[in-house]
Design brief:
heterodimer, A: mainly alpha, 2 domains, B: mainly alpha, globular
């Protein structure tokens, strides 16, 4: 398909579909505003402009996604699992794959998970909110780092699962059992925030890229079925931040406690 | 976007030592992605977020339970249908299911499958926000809802067809993104700060957690019905 064909036909189709996608939330907000709250909307002209931005932006994004994010994710997966890259030759390819051979896949997964998350606007917003609501006990950078590390580890482990072909639900069930046990030992105020950070991190850019990476891995690694093994990376990316944020909270809680203890000891020693 | 481009560029040129295939197409696509997201977020900030947030606060204070709950449900449903990441993943899931022969491989049956997948997820997010608002009002501890939800997921996993499990688990993380998170968080924090005895830190957050949990349940049930 040529680039020109995309810009005309597909774009109009995408634009119409986008209109249909955005309509429900517009109806909800304006319907409630007029009929339930019975308030007039100020700056109606500005708002109509904003809505045009939303619809046009979404259509651009969806066309760009097909052209860039999906192909990028799949081509990275294809190249990193290429036998020629892994073994340096197309001959002597092993009959049974060893998971250790795919170490570049894991390193890439860790890097891409960390990189997509650390700059994520939704996460920055939540971190600032959490910092102010907690009265400064949670630092903005600490939370962002903890979440980004969680996503990186999650996607790495998820890639390992695709390489080995082990069932997804074992990992997820074990992960959430761990989360529940950890919850009992975490400072109360952080718990809901930690649970939220799992959902917040998986953003609009990360999701298609990571989904394409998983599907690409499942397509190229021998013996994997894309439909069964290809999904699941995003589930890992939502689970591990919960663990890392609670871990971060426990750590800073413990450090704070130790600091006050040593302070007390110093005072009594005087 | 910059960190992503750096990571991919690093691996492509230093580790793989290969040019990117279809570089021009990908660059044009990336440009569209960046431009599209910038417009989309700018538009949300101008048009939807200010009204949405002030409405969330208004409903939280007014205290008509019926309207508050209907608003909560419809807000969850409406934001999820418009969520770009979900549109992308649902299409991908449909084309994979068609290739694998789980559904008929025609344009119509693929878009039908993707569309109902999104409706299912949107219904689940709507229900999650409704339950979450009730939780804030009644002061139920979030932990028990989460434990109950995940127990249900574990049980359902053993009955659901294997083709749906991956996408079901993923849909939990996919749904809570660009539009849903700011509007829903505003509702939660608005509610918790306007009710006596609730602290925003403990009660305000937590809506997103529920909204990441219910899609898993609903999508597995959807899979049991259609596959």
């Amino acid at each position: 398909m040529s680039w020109e064909a995309i810009t005309t036909n597909d774009f109009i189709g995408t634009l119409l579909a986008t209109l249909r996608d955005v309509l429900p939330i517009i109806l909800v907000i304006f319907g409630f505003q007029y009929f339930v709250l019975r308030q007039r909307i100020k700056n109606i002209k500005k708002i109509l402009f904003g809505l045009a931005y939303v619809i046009l932006g979404l259509a651009f994004f969806l066309v760009g996604l097909e052209k860039a994010l999906f192909p990028l994710g799949e081509s990275m997966a294809r190249q990193l699992t290429n036998p020629e890259f892994i073994y340096g030759t197309t001959q002597h390819v092993r009959e049974f794959i060893r998971w250790q051979d795919y170490y570049w896949v894991y390193i890439f997964a860790l890097a891409i998970g960390f990189a997509t998350t650390i700059a994520e606007p939704a996460l920055i917003a939540v971190s600032i909110k959490a910092n102010s609501v907690s009265g400064g006990a949670i630092s903005v950078w600490g939370l962002r780092g903890a979440v980004a590390l969680g996503v990186g580890i999650g996607i790495t482990l998820g890639s390992f699962r695709i390489v080995t072909g082990t069932p997804l639900h074992y990992y997820i069930i074990a992960g959430y059992t761990f989360v529940i046990i950890q919850t009992f030992f975490s400072p109360r105020p952080i718990v809901a925030l930690a649970y939220d950070s799992g959902g917040v991190t998986t953003s609009t850019v990360t999701v298609p890229l990571v989904a394409a990476l998983g599907i690409g891995l499942a397509k190229t690694i021998p013996g994997r079925n894309p439909l069964i093994d290809g999904f699941g990376l995003i589930a890992f990316a939502s689970l591990f931040p919960i663990i890392s944020v609670m871990g971060y909270a426990q750590l800073s809680h413990w450090r704070l406690k130790r600091k006050t203890n040593t302070n007390l000891e110093n005072k009594s020693g005087d | 976007m910059l960190p992503i481009i750096l990571v991919i560029g690093f691996f492509q040129f230093l580790i793989l030592r290969q040019p990117i295939p279809n570089l021009m197409d990908i660059l044009a696509g990336l440009l569209l992605v960046i431009l599209g997201l910038a417009l989309f977020i700018k538009g949300l900030e101008i048009a939807l977020f200010p009204i949405g947030e002030s409405m969330a606060y208004a409903f939280a204070r007014k205290g008509n339970l019926f309207w508050l709950l209907s608003f909560a449900f419809l807000l969850g449903f409406g934001t999820t249908i418009a969520e770009p990441a979900l549109i992308a993943v649902a299409d991908k899931a449909a084309s994979l299911a068609a290739q694998a022969g789980a559904i008929i491989n025609t344009d119509e049956s693929r878009s039908h499958y993707a569309y109902w997948l999104r409706i299912t997820v949107a219904l689940s997010v709507g229900s999650a926000i409704l339950i979450g608002v009730l939780r804030i009002l009644r002061g139920w501890p979030i932990l028990w809802l989460i434990i109950g939800g995940y127990t249900l997921i574990v049980i359902l996993t053993s009955f659901a067809p294997p083709e749906i499990i991956g996408i079901a688990y993923d849909s939990g993380g996919v749904t809570t993104s660009t539009i849903t998170v700011p509007l829903v968080t505003a509702l939660g924090i608005g509610l918790a700060s306007s009710i006596k005895g609730r602290t925003p830190m403990i009660d305000g957050f937590g809506l997103i957690a529920l909204a990441s949990l219910t899609p898993i349940i609903f999508v597995m049930i959807y899979g049991m019905i259609v596959l």
